[in-house]
Amino acid sequence: MRFPVPSLLGLYGVLSATAVSLVLGEGEGEVTGLETQDQPPHFLSVRPSLAKGYESEANIPTKKYFTESSFHHHYDGRFANSTLPEEKVIPYLSNLIQTYLETMNSIGAETWIMHGSLLSWWWNQKIFPWDNDLDVQISEPTIHFLADYYNFTDHHFEIPGVEGGRTYLLEINPNYVVKSTKDRLNVIDGRWIDKSSGLFIDITAVRPDDDKRKRGYPEALMCKDRHHYDESDIFPLRDSYYEDVPVKIPYAYAALLAEEYGAASMTKTDFQGHHFSDESKIWEKYSRKMKRILRRAWRGDDLPKRSGTEPLIRMDDV
Ligand SMILES: *[C@@H]1O[C@H](CO)[C@@H](O)[C@H](O)[C@H]1NC(C)=O
Ligand SMILES: *[C@@H]1O[C@H](CO)[C@@H](O)[C@H](O)[C@H]1NC(C)=O
């Protein structure tokens, strides 16, 4: 089992939400948020909202709620006009996931990492140095809870070395109530957006797969992005660390990673121009010399190809 406990570097304590402001949805008469209560109920106690009627399949939205910037699909154009300089991407992503995990933890909202982020966790509990996005999931009670109590809330964090800190926006797609995978335009249920850079994390909800359950699979789960799971793949969640803050990990993480990326994804130590150093436990960028050697080794499947269609050995000779 791989559950190392890295040093916290003091970050978990340093990052603390210092202000939560709430913008009410336009035209909504009722006050649903933090202005009236400091401590919203734990998400399990808002279970009645689970009964909220899903729109019928005939009402599949024709509009995409979340929009990405024209310059990069991992940036929100409302908050930026350009991508970050390359060397800033990983530090910003690191703060993005730290503040997200810290916030979800402090409001009692169940979330865990998945896909590429889970694979990078498997190696060294850190974001891959070549990553430009992060993947998190939440359970269905959590999406209702966030939509009801935390939609469009700002979360301000003081971040060491960042003057004035940064503010993050939690935004829930109103089409989260449409459960159908036919809603191709709204597969992302929520976003955690860094208002200083426009970088964001996509949040997807994992829900009971009602159709499959009716066909005799009582554990079936699904996301609108068409990923399917069994309850025992994900629950009970495990505790670990990611980017030095506490994180939840799906129960059957190795099986999930093998299924999504192949078993070699957990053993292959050369990837995306980086080598995983057993000693430092980090993905180190290839030096020029190393690149030259590797390029030579890879030449094997780059041999000159004969032109023409004649086979070298005629089948009736064999
Ligand atoms: C992006 O550029 C436009 C046009 O120059 C400007 O109006 C807008 O404020 C800029 N947005 C941000 C987030 O910097
Ligand atoms: C969240 O708030 C935004 C901005 O007011 C709104 O457009 C969106 O519909 C809201 N989402 C939900 C789930 O109510």
UniProtKB/TrEMBL annotation:
Keywords, ordered alphabetically: Membrane, Signal, Transmembrane, Transmembrane helix
Signal peptide segment: 1-25
Biological processes annotated in GO: glycoprotein metabolic process
Main location: membrane
Keyword Chaperone in annotation: no
Protein location: Membrane
Source species, domain of life: Eukaryota
Pfam families the UniProt entry points to: LicD
InterPro entries referenced in this protein's UniProt entry, alphabetically: FKTN/MNN4/W02B3.4-1 (IPR009644), LicD/FKTN/FKRP_NTP_transf (IPR007074)
Domain LicD/FKTN/FKRP nucleotidyltransferase: 110-213
Membrane topology reported for the UniProt record: Single-pass membrane protein
PANTHER family in the cross-refs: FUKUTIN-RELATED, PROTEIN (MNN4), PUTATIVE (AFU_ORTHOLOGUE AFUA_1G03790)-RELATED
Name of the featured protein: LicD/FKTN/FKRP nucleotidyltransferase domain-containing protein
